[in-house]
Specification:
It contains 10 helices and 11 strands. By secondary structure, it is of the alpha/beta class. The longest helix has 21 residues. The structure holds nicotinamide-adenine-dinucleotide (NAD).
Length: about 280
């Protein structure tokens, strides 16, 4: 049987560690605050925003919530971001994506002060990651590194294959695995013979956005499989990009959906926020 990588337990452990750090920062007179902005009322976004605020409360940091109407203009949103950039009591700024179509997402990301970019999406944060400098790291891939490390899985020297090259998962994942001395290959929708490439992987990270696409024919026996995908199937149950029942029996370790990568994203957001205190001091 494979090792089931327990993202729920690992994220709970990280949150408890952060809670202690926040308590000692408070004793030293440093308090932390995350500003969360949501434009419009997409139900999924509302759930994510609610979970982020709850997680802040759990570790003892404040959160400010801005629920703006759908018709908010880009100018109004940028003006709010500029205000928050200038506020000494705000450590992190998060604009829940996606924003409505009339707002330029890239312009919003660029407007956030990189010192408060706790999502790690600002070009300066991504550039810093690329050249090995300090900066905030995109939460989902940062969470995957924590899952691997805290499960005792060695990355250095391993063949790491990523399926997907998105800006928030695939690309930063490649940079992080490289930083950990993995030998990294990125595959995508134009990759020829995907199966031939993924079968080389000791560590396979799957971020395609296609329910249960990855079956055992893509996986080498004994590989570690990390499933980033989240979907609701026809019975309203959550599933990933990996066909878990088919793949699990041949892996050495695997993340379930739910309870694998998902819970790590918020834990790493909180970690970025706590680190921001050190950055700003
Ligand atoms: P995306 O749609 O931006 O990117 C998908 C990538 O998959 C693209 O780079 C594309 O080239 C590649 N791809 C598509 N079809 C392919 C194919 N047939 N063969 C090989 N590659 C193919 O998606 P994303 O934002 O990276 O998210 C991927 C999945 O992860 C989604 O299910 C999303 O919901 C989930 N996700 C989960 C979390 C989390 O916290 N767990 C965070 C972000 C995304």
């Amino acid at each position: 049987m494979p090792q089931i990588i327990d993202g729920k337990a690992i994220s709970a452990q990280i949150k408890d560690e952060l809670k202690e750090k926040v308590a000692s920062l408070k004793e030293a007179g440093v308090s932390l605050c995350l500003a969360v902005i949501q434009v419009g009322n997409d139900p999924a976004s509302s759930v994510y925003v609610g979970n982020k605020k709850k997680a802040c409360a759990y570790i003892g940091v404040d959160s400010l919530s801005y629920e703006l109407p759908e018709e908010t203009t880009q100018e109004e949103l940028l003006s709010l971001v500029a205000d928050l950039n200038g506020r000494a009591d705000v450590n992190g700024i998060l604009v829940q994506l996606p924003v409505p179509a009339h707002i330029d997402e890239d312009a919003v990301i660029r407007a956030i002060d990189p010192m408060k970019d706790v999502d790690g999406f600002h070009p300066q944060s991504v550039g810093a990651l690329c050249i090995g400098q300090k900066g905030f790291i995109s939460c989902t891939p940062a969470g995957i590194i924590q899952l691997l490390k805290r499960s005792g899985i060695e990355i250095a020297g391993k063949e790491c294959v990523i399926i997907g090259r998105s800006n928030i998962v695939g690309k930063p994942m490649a940079l992080l695995l490289l930083r950990e001395n993995g030998t990294v290959t990125v595959t995508h929708s134009k990759t020829k013979d995907l199966e031939e490439v993924t079968k080389r992987a000791d560590i396979l990270v799957v971020a395609i956005g296609k329910p249960k696409m990855i079956t055992r024919k893509y996986v080498k026996e004994g590989a570690v499989v990390i499933d980033v995908g989240i979907h609701r199937n026809e019975n309203n149950k959550l599933c990933g990009d990996v066909d878990y029942d088919d793949v699990a029996p041949i892996c050495s370790a695997i993340t379930p959906v739910p309870g694998g990568v998902g819970p790590m994203t918020i834990a790493m957001l909180l970690q970025n926020l706590v680190e921001s205190a050190a950055v700003m001091r």
